[in-house]
């Protein structure tokens, strides 16, 4: 039979890059609280002989009262893991530079917003803090945090340096904080002279890993940085730290302190893994129905290789009376966030999604994950990382989970075998025609 992946055409590099920004935005939109971690923060101080400060409360930071009020109004009780170390460093006198890396949801944005707000002098009507974001949408998200945290500073204003935000020539910006994308910020600082870069006290480069994925952003960011005064505080944040990010970070942030927080390791130890042998898509669907008929599944996520399969499966499951949510690539990020939110709230019991759409998304794991198609990379090799991220659990929240893989050809059996070998974990065969056997898997 024909592989059903004709709508999974290879993505252009630009699309891949847009994806990264979209994934990052999606994670922000669906995140309502901190990611918990048991890992230790690694700190590398510029001056290893200076004492290392860490705070357990926001009071210890001696913030301006309006700012402390802003922090509490956001519902923060104490600094997050990364904030414990990052905040005293960022608020120290004289200002110190910082490069910080930790996964999405660990409190980076809140940390640098706090740093900007504590250095800004709202009485001075010119830009003093400059923050670069990879896209307009991401800039808006950061802007919202600034507005929330700074809400007890009535005179504090925010300007967005993004495409389409046209000012009159010769105008000067009076807003104290500017947040924007590199191209527009560069224009505003140089050609158009809306901003005097020499007056910037804090420079933030957010989402460095997403940033450098876009052509031109790296150069533009460096050119902006070169215009800033020597004593300007430079801060760079990234969710990941591959070599390219690190090289870029060192160009943008001289003499940095460095803070890293490792991602919580995921494991397959508490997961029961099965595979079901089928001959085609219809048999996979039948197997799925049999499983649903035999055991009670509170909520499941089902992953398909293509949009077409995902759409088809969602429709078939609906016909069977399931409440199904569909997450698909053509949806806008905001729509996707809304779908995930509804699923989280339990309004739908099954979430069908494509591999691509779900990649990199930190959805709190549900107890049953079904790989209707196994995850493969664009060369057709097993995508072990995705497999692990999808069904793995972090030790801390080690609830037991169930993963069922649908296998429908020699090729996919081969992929499955390679996944087993990679993790050195056996995936048991499940006969879905045998209801007793299915029932046993929940014991
Ligand atoms: N100290 C804190 N206490 C409680 N909640 C916090 C604290 N710091 C941040 N948060 C909340 O946790 C969530 C994640 O924080 P934040 O956005 O700063 O993380 P991040 O590392 O920048 O992740 P992302 O890049 O996805 O935005 C947000 O909803 C934020 O309001």
UniProtKB/TrEMBL annotation:
Helicase ATP-binding domain segment(s): 89-259
Native source organism of the sequence: Buteo japonicus
GO cellular component: cytoplasm; nucleus
Protein name: RNA helicase
Chemical reaction(s) catalysed: ATP + H2O = ADP + phosphate + H(+)
The UniProt record lists the keyword ATP-binding: yes
Sorted UniProt keywords: ATP-binding, Cytoplasm, Helicase, Hydrolase, Nucleotide-binding, Nucleus, RNA-binding
Transmembrane intervals: none
Motif (Q motif): 56-84
InterPro entries: DEAD/DEAH_box_helicase_dom, Helicase_ATP-bd, Helicase_C-like, P-loop_NTPase, RNA_helicase_DEAD_Q_motif
Domain of life: Eukaryota
Listed GO MF terms: ATP binding; hydrolase activity; RNA binding; RNA helicase activity
Tagged with keyword Nucleotide-binding: yes
Subcellular compartments: Cytoplasm; Nucleus
Region (Disordered): 1-20
Enzyme Commission number, as recorded: 3.6.4.13
Major site of localization recorded for this protein: cytoplasm
Domain spans labelled DEAD-box RNA helicase Q: 56-84
Ranges where the Helicase C-terminal domain occurs: 270-438
């Amino acid at each position: 039979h024909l592989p059903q992946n004709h709508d999974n055409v290879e993505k252009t590099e630009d699309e891949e890059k847009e994806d990264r920004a979209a994934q990052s935005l999606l994670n922000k939109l669906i995140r309502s609280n901190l990611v918990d971690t048991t890992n230790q923060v690694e700190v590398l101080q510029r001056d290893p002989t200076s004492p290392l400060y860490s705070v357990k409360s926001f009071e210890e930071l001696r913030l301006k009262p309006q700012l402390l009020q802003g922090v509490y109004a956001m519902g923060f009780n104490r600094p997050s893991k990364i904030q414990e170390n990052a905040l005293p460093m960022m608020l120290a006198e004289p200002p110190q530079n910082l490069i910080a890396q930790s996964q999405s949801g660990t409190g980076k944005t809140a940390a640098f917003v706090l740093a900007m707000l504590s250095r800004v002098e709202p009485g001075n009507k010119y830009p003093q803090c400059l923050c670069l974001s990879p896209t307009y949408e991401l800039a808006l998200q950061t802007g919202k945090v600034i507005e929330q945290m700074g809400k007890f500073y009535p005179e504090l204003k925010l300007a967005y340096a993004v495409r389409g935000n046209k000012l009159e020539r010769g105008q000067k910006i009076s807003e104290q904080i500017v947040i924007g994308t590199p191209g527009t910020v560069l224009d505003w600082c140089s050609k158009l002279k809306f901003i005097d870069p020499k007056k910037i006290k804090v420079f933030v480069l957010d989402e460095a890993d997403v940033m450098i994925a876009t052509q031109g952003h790296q150069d533009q960011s460096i050119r902006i940085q070169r215009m800033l005064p020597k004593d300007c505080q430079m801060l760079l944040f990234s969710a990941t730290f591959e070599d390219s990010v690190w090289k870029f970070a060192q160009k943008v942030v001289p003499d940095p302190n460095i803070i890293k927080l490792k991602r919580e390791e995921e494991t397959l130890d508490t997961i029961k893994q099965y595979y079901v042998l089928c001959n085609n898509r219809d048999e996979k669907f039948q197997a799925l129905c049999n499983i649903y008929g035999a055991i009670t599944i509170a909520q499941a996520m089902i992953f398909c290789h293509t949009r077409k399969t995902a759409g088809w499966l969602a429709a078939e499951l609906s016909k069977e009376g399931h409440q199904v949510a569909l997450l698909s690539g053509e949806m806008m990020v905001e729509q996707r966030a809304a779908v995930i939110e509804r699923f989280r709230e339990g309004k739908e019991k099954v979430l069908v999604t494509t591999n691509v759409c779900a990649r990199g998304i930190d959805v709190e794991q549900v107890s049953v994950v079904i790989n209707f198609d196994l995850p493969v990379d664009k060369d057709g090799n097993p995508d072990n990382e995705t497999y692990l991220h999808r069904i793995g659990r972090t030790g801390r929240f080690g609830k037991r989970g169930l993963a069922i893989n649908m296998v429908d050809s020699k090729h996919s059996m081969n992929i499955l075998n390679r996944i087993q070998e990679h993790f050195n974990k056996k995936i048991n065969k499940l006969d879905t025609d045998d209801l007793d056997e299915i029932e046993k898997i929940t014991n």
